[in-house]
Amino acid sequence: MVDQPAQILTQVDLLSLKLASHLGALSEQQNKRKFNQVMTNNWRLIDYYSLGVEKAQQCKTPEAIDLLKKAIALDPEFAMAYARIGYAYGVNGAEPEKAKPYLQKGFQLSDRLTERDKHYIDAWYDMANLDYLAAINSFRDLIIRYPLEVEAYWRLARLLVGEQRYDEALEVAKQGLVIDSGAKDLYNTLGGIYTDLGRHDEAIRNGAALCRDGARRTQCA
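The structure assignment produced for this chain is given below.
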């Protein structure tokens, strides 16, 4: 396990990976869209799932859960739909006890999960257990294995902020923005870190970049 987030990957490494992705040089698993990791050919189910994930990321927890439950009604063994309900309750929301049964159900259906999905569920379960140091380690491991996962950078940065490890959080957020320069959640997190550090000019510049890129403020607390 690395001691500093800066040791996860250098920016040169990240840029190389991003270029390789565009050229089709990454492994199939790393280069798949989340859509295609849903193990079904039922497009109605995929619509419910993908919209549910989007609503969860926008902190619209009740709407997200309703959509994900509709996906489960169409496929009662849809592992990631259960896991994402757990995510909505325990990561975005403040109901970890409600989250755990859904995350556990996702684990039980592990034959329907990719290795990347399993790593996400591990990290979410750590958060539902309020074990934030374990969650930090889980997200670091996930980034090492899947360095283009922007969501993992954002969650890791947020966890580090919660532990008041601002310099580390700053580095992680910047690394994520190398992968996706328009990631609104990372921009929001970066601006918040600069504010916490009293670096208000940089927070203002970051806010200007956020507006310039047209990113919307949808970050969950």
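Interim note for the steering committee: The CA atoms of residues 21 and 27 lie 9 Å apart. Residues 1-31+148-221 form a domain with the Serine Threonine Protein Phosphatase 5, Tetratricopeptide repeat fold (CATH 1.25.40.10).
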